[in-house]
Amino acid sequence: MKHWTDKDMLAFARIASNGTGGKYEGCQTLISKLARFKTIKYMEKFNGFQKHLILTGLEIRVQQIKDDIDKAEENGKRHIMTKGYIDMEVEELREKINNYTKKPDKG
Q1: CB 94: neighbour CB atoms within 10 A?
Q2: Which of these three, 14, 30, 45, is where a domain ends?
Q3: What are phi and psi of 86, to 5 degrees?
Q4: Would residue 22 be called left, alpha or beta, if left means φ above 0 and alpha means ψ between -120 and 50 degrees?
């Protein structure tokens, strides 16, 4: 989302002041709600099949990063260089990926 309309701002203001249910389940901070809001708005422009392709691509990339982490640990490396994560500590990257893929608590 490059440009916010008045409609977008009002919609996010409502979301920001509500709880963490529905599409925003698991979003504990304003920043996480904003990120989810932007993702939802971005995905609205695609049809079902296009959304499936995008999400499948993200899942594949997450798995590639997990594989990179495992290889780095097997080789005894403490830092990893992968696209988008230049010289990041392996444990820090693992934590980011786990947080990204973590399912929200139901209770």
Answers
A1: 18
A2: 45
A3: -85, 120
A4: left
Residues 91 and 75 in one domain: yes
Q: What is the pLDDT of residues 40-70, one digit of tens each?
A: 887 787 777 777 777 777 777 777 778 887 8
Tokens representing residue 97 in the block: 């990926």
- Please give the residue range of the domain that contains residue 22: 1-45
Read off the DSSP letter of residue 22: G
Axis crossing angle, helix 30-43 with helix 6-17, rounded to the nearest 10 = 130
Closest CA to 35 of 58, 57, 17, 12: 12
> Which of 78, 99, 80 minimizes the C-alpha distance to 88?
80
Residue 107 in domain: no
pTM of the model: 0.45
